[in-house]
Specification:
Distance between the termini: 45 Å
Keywords: DNA-binding, Transcription, Transcription regulation
Organism: Selenihalanaerobacter shriftii
Strand order of the largest sheet: 1-2
Number of domains: 2
CATH superfamily of the largest domain: GntR ligand-binding domain-like
Structural class: mainly alpha
Largest sheet: 2 strands, antiparallel
Strand content: under 5%
Shape: elongated
Mean pLDDT: 83
Number of strands: 2
GO molecular function: DNA binding; DNA-binding transcription factor activity
Protein name: Transcriptional regulator, GntR family
Order of helices and strands: HHHEEHHHHHHHHH
Pfam families: FCD, GntR
CATH topology of the largest domain: Four Helix Bundle (Hemerythrin (Met), subunit A)
Helix content: over 70%
CATH architecture of the largest domain: Up-down Bundle
Number of helices: 12
Amino acid sequence: MSIFKPIKNKRIYQQIVEQIRELIVDGTLSPGDKLMSERAMAEELNVSRASIREAFSVLEMLGLIESRPGEGTFIKEVKEEKVLEPLALILASDTDNIFELIETRKILEVESASLAAKRANEDDIENIKKALDEMKDAISEGRLGDQADVKFHFAIAKATHNQMFVRIMNTISDLLIQAIGEARKKLFEVENNNETLYEQHQQIHESIVSKNPQQARESMYYHLETTRKELKKLV
């Protein structure tokens, strides 16, 4: 008897993600268990291999499974709260919607910058500056600087000293980068965009250093809104 339920037509890969998540939660699937191959699972559920592949990609982003070359796909050892975290599941299932993710970041990060301007200590300021310097070095070397960009926004979230901000930003930032990988490359192909984006981050940093919450809020909003508009032209 199959452990899987019949698949409905709507959002197939999301249903697969949810089923596997539930099987992990109830103990049917345990850490170290090997999942059946894409082909076998596609036949079992009567869906396309593309749907299975997309579901596996989401589950891997969530840290619930891992692919081992030459061996297969296995359930990972994870904390229960990570398996149950609904926000991560929702966002991972909707990574194709770049602009909703950016909109969500605007709601969170604008206030995050303001709080960071109020609460950041010397270590926080140093971490933000370090990420900014890494971004500058990357751009000068012709690289995207995307890793430094993520570090910069994480450092600001941590500077709020609000752990919920940190957890939410961790989820959104990872998924945002995953969703707009190629779009980010296109963004940097536009002349002077790399320098412009660096200057926007620099303005955010200066606002936090000067402990100006309103300026930090405005600088972050301007940065994210400009990013949205530029991506809209390219995607």
